[in-house]
Amino acid sequence: MSYRAIKYTKKRDLNILATETELKLTVTADDLVHLLKHPLLANLSRRKKLYNIYYDTPELALMKNAIAVRERIILRKTLLTVKLDQNKLDPNNFGGLSQRSEWEGPSIPGQFDFQTLIDDVATLNFLSQLTPQLSPIFTTDFYRRTCIATFRGAKVEVAIDQGLIVTKRAGSFFQEPICEVELELLEGKPSALFGLARVLSRRARLHPSAASKAQRGYDLYLDRKLGPIKPAAITQIPEASLQQTFVHINLECLTHLQVNDVGLLLDQDDEYIHQVRVAIRRIRVSLKLFAKILPLDFVSHWSMVWRGIAKRLDDARNWDVFVAELLPLIVRDLSSSAALNNLQEFVKMQRFLAHDQVIQYIGNRSYSVQVISYTEALLNLDVMKDTTVQSDLMQQTGVVEKELLQMKPKEFATKILQRRHRQLHKKLMISRHTSEQFHELRLELKKLRYAMDFFNSFYQAKKVSAYLKPLTKIQELLGQMNDMVSAQALLATSDQSSFEIFTAWIKGRESGYFVILPRAVKGLVQLPEPWKK
Questions:
Q1: pLDDT of 402
Q2: Domain 238-396 adopts which CATH fold?
Q3: What is the DSSP-derived secondary structure letter of residue 459?
Q4: Where in the chain is the domain with CATH 1.40.20.10?
Q5: Nearest-CA neighbor of 130 among 58, 80, 66?
Q6: Which of 154, 198, 430, 441 could form a disulfide with 192 if both were Cys (CB 3.0 to 4.6 A apart)?
Q7: What is the phi/psi pair of residue 496, to 5°?
């Protein structure tokens, strides 16, 4: 698992650098003008044209096997490149760095001399069998300017690319613009890339990009449309330290965030906002779960930052639910109401305004700076190895047991889940729940579910499923009840007294959950705990 914005490449050709660590950032053409004036980019080179042809078979065998074959033409020179995306082949990559094996060498256009290029027998045999079937799939044609920047003891090559991705489908050409910044680490720590990106962001909005040029080329060739993406399963590393486990979880949460925040800006699917909120909520939960083994100032600062970001999305999500779920029911049941047209216009206008505010915020430089800064802070969380650092942390928090810092991730996970389970059980045992108590129960359920999502790879899949299934069902019911409460608050923002009939209808629907929920909640008391043998 990895944070896709970083690429970590192992190259086996002795004429090429052994490793490559790279951060890709998107930038608009308008912002690029301001970025080029940054003092750190004063020594940018002249523009160099790079023309790349990507090959595959008609069945896209290379793409399906996470292999890219590219010819790069620079003036009269041609380079043949083969890349293996280890991140797709190996789900256990750890630490936020996706790994690629890469071979590159001089070539003749249209001739694939893999024999002299590749030293891996399996890859060589696979490509040799496919060579007769290879044909151009798409091209990337762009200008690149580069310079070397030094930042906090690190040396970074900055590359600014601007051009086009072009492909052909059904006899017609299609293209997509390229406008991005690549930061390649030559010396130093990967966190320096995010530090440099943060400093460069003073002049322009730079946003970490999860999609490579090759991925975008295939998307264009296949006419694949963006769609909201749910969080991927997290595979934990039993031997990792607790800090490494925390960083691993958060890099996955950031990946989930970024594959959805880019779609949110298009405002074509309400689910993007929901998935962005889920990603942020998962980050906030992880900060609470690991608070005792993290620096106090880190937890307090970033908990506040992510809480502030989350609040900016609340209204848009609540209006989405009102329009998609409640409004059709109101129209069905209260179609004779003279105020119905006014309600529909009010609700849809409020949803439009809320979406516009979210798009303005997510598309703003300040949001991207927060994402970059958080990743930088994560990568700067050094693994605690000596007792001096552990002692400092204990004094800082005042509540950390030394044994906690020595725990393996599974032991820590079980401790966390047992505590969350006990807290949930206490809330379930209340004889008569009020609306506020149901709300607290819903929040407790969410925390438990997210904790289970983070750690479920430690336990048997069947036991995890048996545990989560009833939790999910009750959470959905509690969520629907909470939607009623939110809907009443949304209507209260209007000064139209004629909307009182709709508020009364919502209150009546809310009361129905007080009949359903007590019986449903009792079913959670005897949940089979997956961490028990």
A1: 58
A2: CHAD domain (1.40.20)
A3: S
A4: 238-396, 408-533
A5: 58
A6: 154
A7: -85, 115
Task: Out of 227-241, 247-261, 313-327, 426-440, pick the least confident.
Answer: 426-440
Quote the strand ranges of 272-371, DSSP E.
Answer: none
Neighbours of 256 (CB within 10 A): 22
Digit-coded pLDDT (tens) for 182-210: 998 999 998 999 999 999 999 899 999 87
The secondary structure of 389-454, three-state, reads: HHHHHHHHHCCCCHHHHHCCHHHHHHHHHHHHHHHHHHHHCCCCCCHHHHHHHHHHHHHHHHHHHH
pLDDT of 288 > 90? The answer is: yes
SS (H, E, C) 182-217: EEEEEECCCHHHHHHHHHHCCCCCCEECCCCHHHHH
CB atoms closer than 10 angstroms to residue 132:
9
Q: How confident is the model at residue 2 (pLDDT cuts 50, 70, 90)?
A: very low
- Region 45-51: mean pLDDT is 94
Under CATH, domain 408-533 is a member of which superfamily? CHAD domain (1.40.20.10)
Q: Where are the beta strands (DSSP E) in 283-323?
A: none
Residue count of the chain? 533
Which class is 6-224 in CATH?
mainly beta
Half-sphere exposure of 381 (CA within 13 A, CB side): 26
Tokens standing for residue 506: 């919502």
